[in-house]
Amino acid sequence: MTVDMQKYTELLQDFSAISQAYINQETLDKLKARYKETINSKRVLENIVNIDSLLKVLEKRGVLQYNEISVLHQIAEIVQNSSIDDLIVNYEHWSTENFTTEINDLYSCAIVPGVEQQTNTSSNKFEPKMPLFRPNVNLEYSANHSSVYSSTTPVSRADREKELQSLVVNRISRKIGRYWADVSRRLNIEEAYIEDIENRYIEETHSHEKMFKEALKIYFSEKNSNWKRDLMTALESSKRKDLKEEVEKIVY
User: Fold this and answer.
1) How many helices (H) and strands (E) does the chain have?
2) Quick one: which of 35, 37, 73, 117 has the fewest CB in 10 Å?
3) DSSP at 20
4) CA pair distance 226, 187, nearest whole angstrom
5) Which of 48, 57, 60, 58 is nearest to 23 (CA)?
6) What is the pTM of this model?
7) Domains of the chain: residue spans and CATH
């Protein structure tokens, strides 16, 4: 079975990008204490410095997986942000549909030796011999789902804008590659800044991603209200229409 893990990867990256603005050191310490027994390593706990590193450790411990994201629900209850709630709900809808369909398709194609395939001629439907796959669900959370979501605090327009920017930056920086400098220039970032950023990150892994994120920090610091239009124009002019269309899907 081939399961498309891209959605899961994007969920974690977007979750981390948004939640990091709401998780200070005190909150992070509370989360580390909550999962202390699961992590079961003082050294590993000390090396958890942000939400991203916490999620990576919980993945290695097996409590966070593509079909088991109750950890994200628990963190979302602390963060209480509607954008994070939406990320989780959208992923659960997608995973239920796609993972269930894929596995059930696999079952329906299986040939069981010595057993004739039974068909319902009146309805022309195949009845699978194996049980349907159901993603793991935190029943305790599901029972209180409405109360959790209804308790989220309202998000201001400025906060929503920042969250949207974080999503866009996180998504396109991973794919920008060598085009980062050209797009940065089209966003009117000075050449001196571009050279400085390049010199700082050129020897690092995922250097283009880090470079573009730094360049966009400079761009967003100017508080440009037309950033969506400017960024899409810059991407298209730099022959990255694919990323322009991706931004368009996120912001509109």
Assistant:
1) 15, 2
2) 37
3) T
4) 11
5) 48
6) 0.46
7) 1-153 (1.10.533.10), 157-251 (1.10.533.10)
